[in-house]
Design brief:
Blueprint lengths: L17 H4 L5 H20 L9 H22 L5 E5 L5 E4 L2 E7 L14 H11 L1 H5 L2 E9 L5 E10 L3 E7 L3 E2 L13 E2 L42
Parallel strand pairs: 3-4
Antiparallel strand pairs: 1-2, 2-3, 4-5, 5-6, 7-8
């Protein structure tokens, strides 16, 4: 989904960052969401059993379900007051403060027609968060989860898409952070940002207990929809 080219020798357009479009879309918050999506896919791959018939399609369906569950569970836990779920159905829309966001697996440069489809509840929320003009312009916010060999996450990109032909913002989310300041001459090593507290699948070990139940939903929350058949979106 490329933009039209500029004239030779023209200065490149200024890079638009997520927080330029809305102050709620901070780097730290987008990192948290990207980490949740990456960890969910990691767990789906860890639980796969090729001997029993798992294949990329079944792993992708599980990764999509795990991603929805992890975002919902984290929102219900209340660790991040800015994170909530708007639509729990198979379309799944979550909120960063009041900004609606969806996610998909695939190349960030090539969102599909399905990716560009805006749900009615999402459109209404966009109008509330950014004004009626944003809805009329077709502005959408998406996380693209790009995968490589074995279905493992290679990159998570935050996108702001305006209409079918224009990418307003393209920001690869850093999944690593620098360590504390080291002494001069000391080796410096990047580390993955911390997990969200969930240990993931308990394959091969007996923990003797279950995960604690989520907190009760707040009044007025979206009622869970009946799960739709898996379509292999993820």
């Amino acid at each position: 989904m490329a933009e039209t080219g500029d004239a030779p020798g023209a200065a490149p357009p200024p890079r638009v960052m997520p927080w330029d479009l809305h102050p709620s879309l901070t780097a730290e918050r987008l990192q948290v969401c990207a980490r949740l999506l990456a960890n969910a896919r990691r767990d789906a791959i860890a639980m796969a059993s090729h001997e029993l018939g798992d294949d990329p399609w079944s792993i992708g369906c599980r990764a999509y379900a795990f991603s929805r569950h992890r975002l919902r569970r984290t929102a219900e836990a209340g660790h991040y007051p800015w994170l909530s779920v708007l639509d729990e159905s198979h379309h799944f829309v979550f909120l960063i403060d009041e900004v609606p966001v969806r996610f998909y697996r695939g190349p960030a440069e090539e969102p599909t027609d399905r990716t560009l489809r805006c749900q009615e509840v999402e459109a209404r929320q966009l109008s509330l968060a950014l004004g009626r003009q944003a809805e009329e312009d077709g502005l959408l916010f998406r996380f693209a989860v790009e995968t490589g060999e074995g279905g493992r996450v290679e990159r998570v990109v935050f996108l702001a898409l305006r209409g079918e032909e224009r990418t307003e913002c393209f920001w690869p989310v850093p999944l690593e952070v620098a360590p504390p300041q080291a002494a001069p001459g000391a080796a410096v090593q990047l580390r993955l940002i911390a997990d969200d507290g969930y240990e993931g699948p308990t394959i091969g070990r007996n923990t003797g207990g279950a995960l604690p139940p989520p907190r009760p939903r707040r009044a007025g929350g979206v009622r869970p929809a009946r799960p739709a058949p898996a379509t292999g979106l993820f």
